[in-house]
Every structure is written in C-alpha cells, then in structure tokens.
Amino acid sequence: MKIQITLLAAAAIAISGITLQAQDKKSGSASDFLKKPVKGLELKSVGRVSFGPKGLLLVSDPASASVVAIDTGDTGPVKKLAAKVENVESKLIDAFGVQKGGVKIIDMAVNPESGNIWLTANVNPGNQPKIVKVDSAGKFSEPDLKSMPHVRMTLPSSENEKLRNVTDLAWGEFSVIVAGQSTGEFSNKIFQIPIPLEHGENAQFYSAETYHVAHRKWETKAPIQSFIPYEEDGKNYIVGAFACTPIAKFPLDDIETGAEVKGTSVVELGSGNRPRDMFTYRKDGEEWLVTNTHRFKKNLFGPSKFWAAKVKMSHLEANDEDNTNENAVRRNDKVASGPEANGMEVVEELFGAVLVSQLENAEVIVLRATSEEATSHDLELVELK
C-alpha cells in the first residue's frame, strides 16, 4: 500500500532509518535489504501489498502466515499514469482469459521509484493468487515472480493461536511493520520484522488493546485496518485506524515479544466506517493524515459509500486524559470542512475511492468504483487539494 513519508515525522516515516538511508543511497538494488534471497517464488495467497526502497515489494501471503519481500527490479525512471484506465476488471479478465466476474482485486500499491502500479488479485477458477503490473500507458502485464530474488518471513503466533489475516503492512524505521488478526482472545496483532529481512520466523509480535470511542469500551479483537509508522519526541509508534472509526497510536520501542500493548485513541471519525488505506501529505503549510474508508451504514458524507477524511497531524500529539480515549477529538459530521470541522475534513477528490496508494506527497493513485455496487473500477492519478 505505501511508503510513508511525512515532513513532521521524517525520521520514522521515511523509507528507513539513518543507517539504512545511507545504505539506500549506495545500494544498487532492493536485494541489499535482503539476507540470502532466493528465486522460485510461489504464493499460496495474496493480500495486502506495499513498497519499500529500490522497488522492494512487500506482499502478504495470509494462507501461509507470512510476508514475502520481492526485489522486483522496478526502479524507474518515474513515469506517471498518463490517462485514466477504465474498467480495470475487464482488462484483467482479458489478460487472464477468464469469464466476467472471475477476477477480484485485493489491494494496490504504486511504486514511487517508477510510477508503475502493482495489483494483487484472486482469479477464478481456483481462486488463484495473482500479481499484476500496470505501467504509465495503462498496459497490464503479469511479472515473472519466479525469476525475482525474495525472502519469506513467517509471522509468529502465541500457543494455540493461528494468524487469521494480514490487514496492512509498511516499511518503517529499521523494520517492516505488519498488522494482523489472530484467532486468540487478544486477536489484534502488531508484528515487527527487523531489516535486513531474512527467511524464517524472526519477527516480534504484540497483542494490542484499543479504546473504541464510538463503542465506549476497550477492545482486543478488532484489528488495525490501516496504519502509518510515526515518531513523536524521539519515540516510535504506529498510528492505526479501526472500523467504527477510532484512530489510535501504539508504542513500538522497548516492548518484549508476546507483550500486550495498550493504544491511545486520539481521533474519532464516527461509527459505521471501515478504513482501507492511510498516508500523510503536506499542502499549503499544513500536514494531513488521510484515511479512505468504506461506509457500511447509511451514507452521511457525500455521493458514495467510499469516502475519505483528512486529519490535522497535530491531533496525533494528544497524550492527556482530557484529549484521548473517551475524550478524543471527534469529527463533526454536520460539516465537510472549515473551522467547525475540528481539523477533520472530507476529501472530495476521494469519493468513490476503494483503494488509494501514494505516489508522491499530494499525488495518489486511486482505484475508484464506477457504481455503488463496486463491481467495476477505474484507475487514475489524482492530486489532492
């Protein structure tokens, strides 16, 4: 889904930490961030997807409880999508030679190094996992994954628990961060995989507890739907969004694997929404956190059940009892923007956006539903105001 780059929290949200940034400038390929990569990749499933440096693609494989890091060799130069690609599903159906309805798009990530767009999808018959690349001309191709160097990182779990799903993943400071859901009582999970990445089970994992403002209670089962790495006062966090829709931050420093981590809810966007993606951008001197969501209750906010909100980054700094959890700042759903919006505004350019991936600052790639049924989608480059 994303490489997070924010001017406010550059150290944590940049492609890597100080040491890895220096390495990145010198390195020739994404394989420099992998230990003993191999070829011959086979995927049991595909889910969430995100880019790291030098065309390094992170792909979740939930069926094998793992994340795969792939050196795609997709390193540019940057060529942006030239025109809207209409009816993406029809292009995929033609590419795979299947019947109408035989393709389901799972996730999308644009590579900031090249501008190419990578999609994960399931293709019938057989629910086959596929990865597809779309270039600046709107041409669809299926990369030869077997020829690409990769490592597979297994996601650990507690005794008598299994990983149910991977809900998001991102390249962070010194580690790849993964959010997921297990079968246990504390099923909301956060994983950290140290960089450089290597085969096997070497991730730390934590069970996360969150105060759901709209529900007025602490919860352990609802997973983080989307997140960004975040740094505040020299400390590392992730900021994640949940269904119904609190935004909370979780500490990552000095935590033992298997520990229970309590989040701090700092923003409440309102019940009835399920977040899809998250990123930050700066415009006119203000830095914003954006999350696009799927509204599964009555549509209150505009022409589509797929909509997005942007939140002033300063809201994330809340730490006191009088402005967190039960007292977290709430979005005013009576107004879309302006002084009465409490620093949380509707992003009009993202109505209908099912998936969003950031190319550069305010430029994003949008997979937009062409109807409320969301059975077909267009792909386009959008600049946020």
Structure description:
- This protein has 385 residues and is mainly β.
- It has a single domain, classed as Neuraminidase (6 Propeller).
- 6% of the residues lie in helices and 43% in strands.
- The chain contains three helices and 28 strands.
- Strands 10, 11, 12, 14, 15 and 19 form a six-stranded mixed beta sheet that branches.
- A hairpin with a 4-residue loop joins strand 17 and strand 18.
- It is globular, with a radius of gyration of 20 Å.
- It starts with 9 loop residues before the first helix and ends with a strand.
Descriptors for this entry?
28 strands; about 375 residues; Neuraminidase; mainly beta; six-stranded mixed β-sheet
Which class of secondary structure composition applies to the elements?
mainly beta
| Poorly predicted runs of 5 or more residues | 3-26
State the distance separating the first and last CA atoms. Answer: 21 Å
CATH architecture: 6 Propeller
Radius of gyration over all CA atoms, rounded: 20 Å
- CATH class descriptor: Mainly Beta
Enter the CATH topology name: Neuraminidase
Mean pLDDT: 92
Number of helices: 3
The tally of beta strands, per DSSP, is: 28
Main sheet overview:
6 strands, mixed
Quickly count the domains.
1
What characteristic shape results from the CA principal axes?
A: globular
Proportion of residues in extended strands? 35-45%
Portion of residues within helices:
under 10%
